[in-house]
Design goal:
Radius of gyration: 21 Å
Oligomer: single chain
Strand order of the largest sheet: 6-7-8-3-9-10-12-11
Order of helices and strands: EEEHEEHEHHHHEHEHEEHHHEE
Shape: globular
Structural class: alpha/beta
Helix content: 25-40%
Number of strands: 12
Bound molecules: iron/sulfur cluster
Amino acid sequence: MSNQPVVLEVKNLKKHFPIKGGVFKTTQGYVKAVDGISFSIKENETFSIVGESGCGKSTAGRTILRLLEPTDGEVWLNGENLYHIDKREFRKRRKDFQLIFQDPYSSLNPRMNVKELLIEPLLTHKLCTKSEATEKAKEMIEKVGLSEKHLARYPHEFSGGQRQRISIARALIVHPKLVILDEAVSALDVSVQSQILNLLIDLQEEFDLTYIFISHDLNVVKHLSDRVGVMYLGQMMEMAETDELYSNPLHPYTQALLSAIPSLSTTEKKERIILKGDVPDPSNPPTGCPFRLRCPHAHDRCVTDNPVFQEVGEDHWVACHLYD
Ligand code: SF4
C-alpha cells in the first residue's frame, strides 16, 4: 500500500453552518461541523473515519463530494482541485465519486425497477448505448450476488441487505475512482453486515476501488480498513494504520472508544474507560482541546491551547498535549 499513488488529498477542510437568529435573522454564530481536517488516501486503500454521532464524519464525507459547499480548505482528486472546477463541469465528474448511504431504500427510486436503476447512471453520463447498458446491468447484478431475474423487480421487493447490494451495483457500474460509504452497513443484521463487508472487499480488489468508510462501529472498521482517522467535534484526534491504532491508541478519546469494544478473548481483561458527559454542543465548543470536558487526563494547558495534530510515530498522528 505504501507505494501506491495518492488518489485523494483533503487539506484543512472546514464546513461551518451559520446559526441565524433575532428579528432580522442575522448570523449569531456557527456550528463548526468540520473544522480543519487533513488526510490523504492512496489508490485501493480503505480509509475509515470513526467517531460518535455528531462528530462531523458524515458532513466531512458530503463536503468532500461537494454535496455541501465547503467553508474552507481543498480537496484534490488525482492531482486536481475539486473545488476549482465549475459546477457544470463538476456534475460531469460526479460518476468518479459515489456515495453509498445507510438506508438504501431512500436512495433508490421506488418507481424504477432494478434494471432501470442500474442503467440510469450509465445513460445520464453518456457512457454507452442503452443495449450496452443493459448488458452491463446484467453483469453487475451478478457481481453483487444477485441474478438477472432480479432486474425486473422493484426496491420494495428486496430485503435490506439485497437493497444495499443494489445500491452498491448502481454506484460501481460507472467505475468510480472513489466511493464514500456512509454507515453503509449500520442498519443491517450482523450476519448480513459481514456478507456485505466481504462483498465490498472483493469488489474493491476487482474494480481497483478506493474507499472512505464512515462509521461509528469500531468492530466493523477494524475488519475493513487500512487506516483509520478518529474525529471528535469536527476535528481529527488521531490517525494511524489500523493495526497500529487498535494496538497502540494514543489519544484518550480513541482509548475510551476502543475500551468499549467487547473482547472475544477469555484471557484478555480490558478495563472499560467510561467517558463523563456527552459530546458538547458544537455551536459552543470548549476552549482549548475539544475533548477536555470528558478527558481523564485534562490539565491546565488543555483549557487554553488546542493541541496541534502532529505525527508522533511512523504515520501515526495525534492531537493531544500529552505527546507535545
Ligand atoms: Fe486530554 Fe488534554 Fe490531550 Fe485533550 S489535550 S486529549 S484534554 S490530555
